[in-house]
Amino acid sequence: MSVAHHQPTPWELTRHDVGLGMAQLPAHASVPRWALDDSYEAPFWSVTRTTDELSVICAWDALPGTVTGVGPFTAFSIDGPLDHSLIGVLAGLLAPLAEADISVLAESTFDTDWILVPTLQADLAVQTWIAAGHLVTSEESR
């Protein structure tokens, strides 16, 4: 029995200019002011609490040196809004990056998915996605 090969859906992504970082705080910490500072124009920020930690994604420049943090990351958003019934969106975009040894942070919002890659690998991520048939445009060209 032969298995038909499914051609992955080509996606359109936007590359955002502002570098992002992620900080880890204690689980019951209050959301710090620097995480919500509007003077840093970030395309995306997120605060997530679990039973083990409070994670903050915000502008790289907003992270104080007193917290445990990683970055900088370049953010890519999938042009949406995306239908909530879609299957395999992230899988189709992350598999080529995994094959190219590019680590990611993935976050979902109501309208779309965000993929954060280490800034030093952002150009390679763009090349990898284009080679896989996806379209990547820069924020400034929109």
Offer a few descriptive terms.
eight-stranded mixed β-sheet, 2 helices, 33% strand, alpha+beta, VC0802-like, 142 residues
Topology-level CATH name: VC0802-like
Q: What is the percent of helical residues?
A: 10-25%
State the secondary-structure class: alpha+beta
By oligomeric state, this entry counts as: single chain
- The CA-CA distance between the termini, in Å, is 46 Å
Q: In the residues, how many domains can be counted?
A: 1
How does the major sheet shape up? 8 strands, mixed
Bin the strand percentage.
25-35%
Number of strands: 8
* Succession of helices and strands: EEEEEHEEHE
Regions with pLDDT < 50 over 5+ consecutive residues? none
CATH architecture: 2-Layer Sandwich
* CATH superfamily (homologous) name: VC0802-like
Compute the number of helices. Answer: 2
Shape: globular
Mean pLDDT: 87
Task: Please explain how this structure is put together.
By secondary structure, this protein is an alpha+beta fold. The protein has a single domain (12-134), classed as VC0802-like. The protein contains 2 helices and 8 strands. Strands 1, 2, 3, 4, 5, 6, 7 and 8 form an 8-stranded mixed β-sheet that branches. The model has no long low-confidence stretch (mean pLDDT 87).
